[in-house]
């Protein structure tokens, strides 16, 4: 662990200096800087008493230099008092940086390190004549750097680094001084019995900050644990590892002595002499402030995470149900886990009034739920709506404008109903930039709510607003499903027979029952005379002649304008019921009018009028079918329409009917068992998707060209989704490659898959099924297409040997595969399921049909 990013500091300095004064002078400056740094560092250890202590000091300085990240150093030879010292280094920082930057050199580069070593030895030995010679350098390709310290008189003609400290260089280039300035380190030397032999001033400053008053004063020779009592459990295991020869580097070490807790970045290195560990080098950096900030940050993150997790849980709860009222109460209950309150209220806009929809607090629930606030007398609430942002009133009894507005809104109830409130906060409920209500919180303490809490509540309010909107959309969706079901039932009834009287009677009965009409009838235009004649009225009843004349007159206006006529109730005119008159079209001509009369006291809404128009369209189809029935040349068209109606009934109506039944019981089941309710909701979603898929398939049946144009993979997925939605059986579909096949092959493969799935649904009693479509090029020339279709189920299977080859489903599939020149394989055994394989290979003639005899095969 380097305690200083040497590369950033040193390399940039060296490169700048070389650009200004050249490499030679740069080396000289760095030598002097190193000597200054080494000398300054050695002086921090004090004065050695004898030669033994000099050797210990030198070894400690070298260990500290290594610990600081300047390389790995090892003393090969030492003759003391100074005769010769040989030191070998791996990755000395200057040589290492040269290799890192891909520099090529022809001489040694470790000028600064050589200077540091000279500074160490001369200060420790109180000499000035010891120099350093670098014999080997890794930057030149050697396996290590080798430095020799010796008296200048013995250096001969070698290039040497001498000890000539230059105070003018000061701290500008002193790397060790830079180290202490940027990352203040405490350095202490301990012997093997844990006595503090030496320490620098920084370590002493640390002692003043964190040593307990109960400990012994810091002086050379004091026992570490006498000075820092209570730290044995932390320090002794580390010291023992160091005395065993291990260098320990640890960040953010928690240290406690006398109840004082601190944190440290620590390097503990063994001090070795003659192969024996004599002591411990303790290098520390105070990390207490950093860790305190980190702990504060972690606490803030923890609180923020709690807030976000609560919001996430609320979001899940909001999405888990579409029953609005209990959901809003749940929101208020969970909100209290994040932002405390005495009272909280959710209000929604109804016209210009705010109506309480949910409440938690000291006000009795029934009383709170009766509260409403109009725009004129509730200025503070409507100020929240106007501003579209949270409003906090720190003290509702103050004389600020907002506080006075609150007091005016409360009126006589300020000291009674609202007497517990001192701080109030209002937050708008917004959906797509539209305010639909507000959320209010109150507390009995003044100045309780903060802007941060307002932001949090605002985020929750947005989710609550979205839930309200989702509930509205859900109701709209249910309404549309209901209308679609009505339309499908009408379509089924209208197409159930070609007898016009029967069709009109059943259809009008259905309309009366489903839309709550008091009566419904059809008036038809006689093509021969042009007169309007009442045809069918349900329920049957007698209508006064004058009333019938008025109805016929209104119908004539509808036929003339070819537009729907809506008659709203008007008591003054004697119109007690709403009425809708819609033209019935046959082949673009108006051939009659559908008349629907509603119940007293009700009106038809726009959605119902649209539904009535669709019903009129269906009745128009029924009229047309009746006419086509009379025409033999159009009998095929009539039969086709009937077939499509039956398909529509079989494919979609039953699914939607099941969906409708589940939807009707879903609220009650959800209230009793939410988990079962969720499963039913999933089933509703699955059935709805299946119905939609089958409707799309039916639309494709109506447009054969679209069937050929759609991608085969898309068609197969639609078939699977339709079957799965109808039965609940999972069907997986996997498509590999793009199928470039002719249209006739495309349609035939689709029909084969359709027939196979129908057989699975009707006969297999399978738990699951799988469809695989694999399209690829031939391995021979890479030009011809190969299509492989696999359909597998785990149903009851059958004995293929006992199955008649003329079985309708199997015969149809064989005929289709033979038509396109494909290969069909059916493998099945009782209780082991069935697999159908269709393989089609493109022929030279590029078509789906088999080649004529006489053609060349490949």
Keywords:
disordered N terminus; six-stranded antiparallel sheet; 858 residues; 25 strands; five-stranded antiparallel sheet; elongated; alpha+beta; 24 helices; single chain
Question: Could you please describe the fold and organization of this structure?
Answer:
The protein is of the alpha+beta class and 858 residues long. A hairpin with a 2-residue loop joins strand 8 (260-273) and strand 9 (276-286). The protein is elongated and about 140 Å long. The two termini are 71 Å apart.
Supply Rg.
46 Å
Main sheet summary: 6 strands, antiparallel
**How far is it from the N-terminal to the C-terminal residue, by CA?**
71 Å
Strand composition percent: 15-25%
What is the helix tally? 24
| Helical percentage | 40-55%
Average per-residue pLDDT, rounded, comes to 81
Q: Low-confidence runs (pLDDT<50, min 5 residues)?
A: 1-5, 166-183, 845-858
Shape: elongated
The side-by-side strand order for the widest beta sheet comes to: 12-11-10-15-14-13
Class by SSE composition: alpha+beta
Assembly state (oligomeric): single chain
Number of strands: 25
Secondary structure layout plus pairing:
Blueprint lengths: L5 H16 L1 H21 L7 H20 L1 E7 L6 E6 L2 H8 L10 H14 L5 E7 L8 E7 L23 H8 L3 E6 L4 E4 L1 H10 L13 H4 L4 H12 L4 E10 L2 E14 L2 E11 L1 H33 L3 H12 L7 E8 L2 E8 L4 H5 L2 E3 L4 H9 L3 E3 L7 H10 L12 E9 L2 E10 L7 H44 L5 H16 L3 E7 L6 E7 L6 H17 L3 E3 L11 E8 L2 E9 L8 H24 L5 H38 L1 H29 L1 H6 L2 H16 L3 E6 L6 H22 L4 E9 L7 E9 L14 H12 L3 E6 L5 E8 L17
Parallel strand pairs: 21-22
Antiparallel strand pairs: 1-2, 2-4, 3-4, 5-6, 5-9, 7-8, 8-9, 10-11, 10-15, 11-12, 13-14, 14-15, 16-17, 16-20, 18-19, 19-20, 22-23, 23-25, 24-25
């Amino acid at each position: 662990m380097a305690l200083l990013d040497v590369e950033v500091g040193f390399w940039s300095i060296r490169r700048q200096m070389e650009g200004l004064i050249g490499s030679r002078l740069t080396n000289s400056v760095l030598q002097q800087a190193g000597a200054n740094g080494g000398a300054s560092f050695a002086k921090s250890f004090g004065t050695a008493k004898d030669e033994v202590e000099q050797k210990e000091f030198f070894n400690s300085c070298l260990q500290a230099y290594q610990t600081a990240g300047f390389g790995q150093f090892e003393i090969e030879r030492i003759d003391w008092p100074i005769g010769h010292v040989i030191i070998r280094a791996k990755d000395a920082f200057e040589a290492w940086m040269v290799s890192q930057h891909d520099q090529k050199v022809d001489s040694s580069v470790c000028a600064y390190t050589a200077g540091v070593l000279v500074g160490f030895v001369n200060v420790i030995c109180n000499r000035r004549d010891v120099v350093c010679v670098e014999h080997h350098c890794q930057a030149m390709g050697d396996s290590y750097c080798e430095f020799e310290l010796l008296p200048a008189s013995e250096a001969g003609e070698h290039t040497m680094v001498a000890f000539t400290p230059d105070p003018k260089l000061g701290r500008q280039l002193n790397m060790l001084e830079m180290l202490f300035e940027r990352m203040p380190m405490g350095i202490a030397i301990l012997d093997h019995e844990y006595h503090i032999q030496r320490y620098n001033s920084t370590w002493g400053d640390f002692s003043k900050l964190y040593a307990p008053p109960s400990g012994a004063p810091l002086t050379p020779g004091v026992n570490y644990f006498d000075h820092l009592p209570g730290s044995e459990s932390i320090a002794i295991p580390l010291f023992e590892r160091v005395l065993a020869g291990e260098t320990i580097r640890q960040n953010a070490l928690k240290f406690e002595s006398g109840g004082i807790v601190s944190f440290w970045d620590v390097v503990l290195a063994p001090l070795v002499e003659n192969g024996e560990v004599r002591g411990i080098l303790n290098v520390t950096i105070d990390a207490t402030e950093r860790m305190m900030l980190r702990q504060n940050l972690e606490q803030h993150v923890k609180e923020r995470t709690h807030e976000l997790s609560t919001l996430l849980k609320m979001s899940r709860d909001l999405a888990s149900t579409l029953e609005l009222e209990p959901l809003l109460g749940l929101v208020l209950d969970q909100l209290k886990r994040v932002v405390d309150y005495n009272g909280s209220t959710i209000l929604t806009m109804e016209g210009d009034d705010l109506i309480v929809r949910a409440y938690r607090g000291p006000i009795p629930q029934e009383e709170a739920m009766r509260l409403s606030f109009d725009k004129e007398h509730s200025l503070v609430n409507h100020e929240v709506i106007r501003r579209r942002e949270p409003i906090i009133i720190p003290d509702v009894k103050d004389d600020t404008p907002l506080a006075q507005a609150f007091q005016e809104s409360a009126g006589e109830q300020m000291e009674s109903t609202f007497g517990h409130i001192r701080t109030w906060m209002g937050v708008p409920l917004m959906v797509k930039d539209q305010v639909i209500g507000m959320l209010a919180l109150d507390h009995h303490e003044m100045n309780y709510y903060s802007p941060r809490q307002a932001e949090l509540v605002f985020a929750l309010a947005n989710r609550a607003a979205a839930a309200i909107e989702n509930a509205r959309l859900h109701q709209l969706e249910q309404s549309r499903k209901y209308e679609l079901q009505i339309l499908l039932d009408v379509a089924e009834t209208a197409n159930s027979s070609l007898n016009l009287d029967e069709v009109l009677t059943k259809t009008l009965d259905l309309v009366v029952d489903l839309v709550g009409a008091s009566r419904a009838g059809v008036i038809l235009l006689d093509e021969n005379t042009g007169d309007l004649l009442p045809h069918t009225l349900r329920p049957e009843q007698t209508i006064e002649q004058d009333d019938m004349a008025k109805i016929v007159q209104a119908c004539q206006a509808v036929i003339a304008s070819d537009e729907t006529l809506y008659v709203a109730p008007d008591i003054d005119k004697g119109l007690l019921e709403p009425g809708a008159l819609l033209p019935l079209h046959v082949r673009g001509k108006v051939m009659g009018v559908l008349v629907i009369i509603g119940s007293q006291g009700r009106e038809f809404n726009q959605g119902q009028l649209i539904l009535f128009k669709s019903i009129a369209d269906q009745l128009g189809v029924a009229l047309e079918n009746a006419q086509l029935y009379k025409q033999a040349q159009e009998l095929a068209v009539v039969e086709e329409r009937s077939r499509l109606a039956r398909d529509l009934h079989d494919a979609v109506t039953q699914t939607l009917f099941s969906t409708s039944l589940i939807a009707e019981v879903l609220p009650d089941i959800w209230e009793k068992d939410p988990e079962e309710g969720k499963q039913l909701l999933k089933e509703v979603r699955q059935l709805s998707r299946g119905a939609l898929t089958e409707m799309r398939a039916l639309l494709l049946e109506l447009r054969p060209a679209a069937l050929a144009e759609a991608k085969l993979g898309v068609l197969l997925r639609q078939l699977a989704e339709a079957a799965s939605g109808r039965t609940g059986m999972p069907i997986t579909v996997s498509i590999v490659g793009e199928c470039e096949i002719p249209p006739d092959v495309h349609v035939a493969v689709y029909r084969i898959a359709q027939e196979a799935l129908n057989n699975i649904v009707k006969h297999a009693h399978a738990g699951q099924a799988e469809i695989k479509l694999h399209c690829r090029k031939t391995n021979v020339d890479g030009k011809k297409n190969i299509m492989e279709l696999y359909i597998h189920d785990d149903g009851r299977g059958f004995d293929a040997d006992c199955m008649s080859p003329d079985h309708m489903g199997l015969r149809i599939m064989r005929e289709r595969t033979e038509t396109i020149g494909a290969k069909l394989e059916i493998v099945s055994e009782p209780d082991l399921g069935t697999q159908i394989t269709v393989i089609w290979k493109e022929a030279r003639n590029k078509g789906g049909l088999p080649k004529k005899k006489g053609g060349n095969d490949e």
